[in-house]
Amino acid sequence: MKTYTEKIKDINEMRGNHIDMQWINDEKPVMTKDGRQVIVTKVDISEVPNIIYGKVKMKDEKLQEYQWNDIGVCLKAIDNFGNPKKPDASDNLVKAI
């Protein structure tokens, strides 16, 4: 049986790992790689690869629309002012727990 500290270590090791569609389908929490909170609003399974639609909470508490593919790579990103920007690695989806 694992001790409490071993369980906490396991949880912390999962945080920041790459997502998969099972994680999204189970409605488990996700975030961007740089730690911003993400709310998944829709998953479009009619496209290959699947497209994940969601809102990212920016520093000024605004929610901006983002899109990712089914492995968490950002396809469409918005900056703090609502302007489109080129997605980078910090916009990718990772596990939040």
Could you explain the architecture of this structure?
The chain has 97 residues and is α+β, with helices and mostly antiparallel strands. The chain is 16% helix and 36% strand. The protein contains 2 helices and 7 strands. The chain has helices at residues 4-14, 21-25; strands at residues 30-32, 37-44, 51-57, 63-69, 74-78, 84-85, 93-95. Strands 6-5-4-3-2-1-7 form a 7-stranded antiparallel β-sheet, with no helix packed on it. A hairpin with a 4-residue loop joins strand 4 and strand 5. The longest helix has 11 residues, at 4-14.
If strands are numbered along the chain, what order do they take across the biggest sheet?
A: 6-5-4-3-2-1-7
| Strand runs, count | 7
Secondary structure tally, helices:
2
SSE sequence, one letter per element = HHEEEEEEE
Task: Provide a quick synopsis of the model.
The protein has helices spanning 4-14, 21-25, and strands at 30-32, 37-44, 51-57, 63-69, 74-78, 84-85, 93-95. The protein is α+β, with helices and mostly antiparallel strands.
SSE layout and pairing:
Blueprint: H1 4-14, H2 21-25, E1 30-32, E2 37-44, E3 51-57, E4 63-69, E5 74-78, E6 84-85, E7 93-95
Antiparallel strand pairs: 1-2, 1-7, 2-3, 3-4, 4-5, 5-6
